[in-house]
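testing teh design pipeline on a random one, pls ignore if ur not involved
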C-alpha cells in the first residue's frame, strides 16, 4: 500500500501503526505458550526493561497487552535460561531484551563503544555513544586507575556470573562527598568504579547479562552466556536494524525510525540518512506524508491497514507509545510518565497506563499492585476529553479484572473519586 509522495490521513496512519504492533490481531482463545510470545516479540522488535515494580516489571506488560494472560515463567526462561532466545543490551532503544538472532547487528556498535570510552577524539554522536556515565567514567579510570578494567574482567572470568557490586577487585568504594570530576559516582545509579568498568565491558560486548538476582544484573563472559554467531558488516547490520524498526512501526519519520533517544535502534544522524536512502532505493521504504506531521515519513513496504478492535492497558515503556511525540501526533494523546515527577505536580497519578480501546487511547489509569492485601488498586482514572465514561467503564472493568487475575491478585479496588472512578467502582 502507499505511493511515493502520498499523504496518509492520520487515522489511517494510526491503524497502520497499530497493525504493525500486533493490535489488529485477536488475542489467543486458548493456552498461550512460547510460540505466541515469539510472534509478538518478533512483531514489536524489543521489550524495554525497567526496574519499577509498582504494578509489574515492564517487560512483561507488552505481551499481556497483545496476548492476554500468559505464564510469566515462560518469558523468564526465554530471557535467562541456558538456551535463552533473548539477550539484554543497552541499544535496543534503552535497556531492552532483544531476539538472540539480532545480536550480530550490534557488534559494530560494541566496537565503537569500546573506542569512545577511552579515546577523547572518538565520535560522540548521541546516536552512537555509550552511556555518558560509562564514557566519562572510563576516561577518568584510564588515567587514574590503569589496569583496573583488566582486573575487573579477570575477576568476572574467575568468579562469574557476578553483580556489579561483586565485581570490584579491591573492594574500594568512592563516596559522593569526594572531590570527583565524574558527577555520576555515588548518585542515583551508584556508578562506583567497578560498575563503570563492568558496564563498559558490557557495552563493548566482552561481558553479557547472564541473568538477574532480585532484578540486579549478573554479568559473565559473553562466550559463556551467548552462542557464537557470524559477523556482519556494519553497513549490513545498520540496514537490517532500520528494516526491523520500519517493520515494527509501519509508518514513521526518520527520527522515529532511528533517532537518538527516540528510535528503536538509534544511529548517527548522517548514517541514518544514508541507510534510509538505501532502503528507499531498494523499495523497502516508501516516502510519504502523514497528515499533521511536518517531517518526511516513510511507509514500510509490507505495512497493512486493517480494522483494530483492541482492548489493552499499555506499559509506559510499550513500543507503541515509548516515543511520546509520535504518540501525541498519532493518537492526539500528550503523555509523560510521572514516576519522576514530584507528587504535588502529578496530574493523573504515579504509574499511569494509557487505555487502548479500538484504535484510540481513551483513558489514563493509575495502577498499583498491593501484594500484601492481594488487591489491584486504581487510585486515579481519567477519561480523555470527548470520550463518554459509558464507553469506557465496561471494557476497562473487564481488562482490570483480567490483569488482576494474571497478577494473582484477588480483587480490584478502585479508590479514584472522579466520576469515571465511581462508575468503574460500581462495575
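output:
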Amino acid at each position: 500500500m502507499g505511493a511515493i509522495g502520498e499523504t496518509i490521513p492520520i487515522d489511517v496512519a494510526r491503524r497502520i501503526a497499530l497493525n504493525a504492533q500486533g493490535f489488529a490481531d485477536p488475542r489467543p482463545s486458548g493456552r498461550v505458550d512460547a510460540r505466541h510470545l515469539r510472534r509478538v516479540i518478533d512483531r514489536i522488535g524489543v521489550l524495554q526493561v525497567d526496574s519499577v515494580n509498582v504494578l509489574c516489571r515492564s517487560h512483561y506488560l507488552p505481551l499481556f497487552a497483545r496476548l492476554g494472560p500468559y505464564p510469566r515463567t515462560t518469558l523468564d526462561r526465554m530471557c535467562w535460561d541456558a538456551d535463552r532466545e533473548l539477550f539484554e543490551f543497552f541499544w535496543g532503544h534503552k535497556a531492552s531484551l532483544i531476539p538472540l538472532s539480532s545480536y550480530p547487528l550490534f557488534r559494530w556498535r560494541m566496537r565503537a563503544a569500546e573506542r569512545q570510552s577511552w579515546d577523547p577524539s572518538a565520535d560522540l554522536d548521541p546516536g552512537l555513544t555509550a552511556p555518558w556515565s560509562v564514557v566519562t567514567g572510563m576516561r577518568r579510570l584510564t588515567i587514574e586507575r590503569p589496569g583496573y578494567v583488566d582486573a575487573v574482567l579477570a575477576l568476572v572470568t574467575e568468579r562469574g556470573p557476578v553483580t556489579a557490586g561483586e565485581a570490584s577487585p579491591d573492594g574500594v568504594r568512592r563516596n559522593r562527598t569526594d572531590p570527583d570530576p565524574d558527577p555520576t559516582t555515588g548518585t542515583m545509579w551508584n556508578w562506583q568504579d567497578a560498575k563503570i568498568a563492568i558496564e563498559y565491558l558490557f557495552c563493548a560486548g566482552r561481558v553479557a547479562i547472564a541473568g538477574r538476582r532480585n532484578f540486579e544484573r549478573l554479568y559473565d563472559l559473553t562466550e559463556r552466556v551467548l552462542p557464537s554467531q557470524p559477523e556482519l558488516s556494519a553497513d549490513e547490520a545498520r540496514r537490517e536494524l532500520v528494516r526491523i524498526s520500519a517493520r515494527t512501526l509501519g509508518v514513521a519519520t526518520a527520527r522515529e525510525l532511528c533517532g537518538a533517544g527516540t528510535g528503536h535502534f538509534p544511529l548517527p544522524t548522517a548514517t541514518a540518512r544514508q541507510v534510509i536512502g538505501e532502503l528507499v532505493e531498494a523499495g523497502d521504504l516508501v516516502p510519504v506524508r502523514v497528515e499533521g506531521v511536518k517531517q518526511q515519513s516513510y511507509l514500510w513496504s509490507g505495512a497493512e491497514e486493517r480494522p483494530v478492535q483492541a482492548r489493552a492497558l499499555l506499559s509506559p515503556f510499550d513500543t507503541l507509545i515509548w516515543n511520546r511525540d509520535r504518540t501525541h501526533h498519532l493518537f492526539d494523546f500528550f503523555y509523560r510518565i510521572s514516576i519522576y515527577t514530584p507528587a504535588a505536580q502529578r496530574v493523573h497519578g504515579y504509574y499511569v497506563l494509557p487505555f487502548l480501546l479500538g484504535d484510540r487511547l481513551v483513558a489514563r489509569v493509575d495502577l498499583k499492585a498491593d501484594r500484601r492485601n492481594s488487591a489491584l488498586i486504581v487510585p486515579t482514572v481519567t477519561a480523555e476529553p470527548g470520550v463518554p465514561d459509558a464507553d469506557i467503564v465496561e471494557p476497562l472493568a473487564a481488562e482490570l479484572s483480567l490483569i488482576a487475575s494474571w497478577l494473582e491478585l484477588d480483587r480490584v479496588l478502585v479508590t479514584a473519586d472522579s466520576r469515571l472512578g465511581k462508575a468503574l467502582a460500581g462495575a
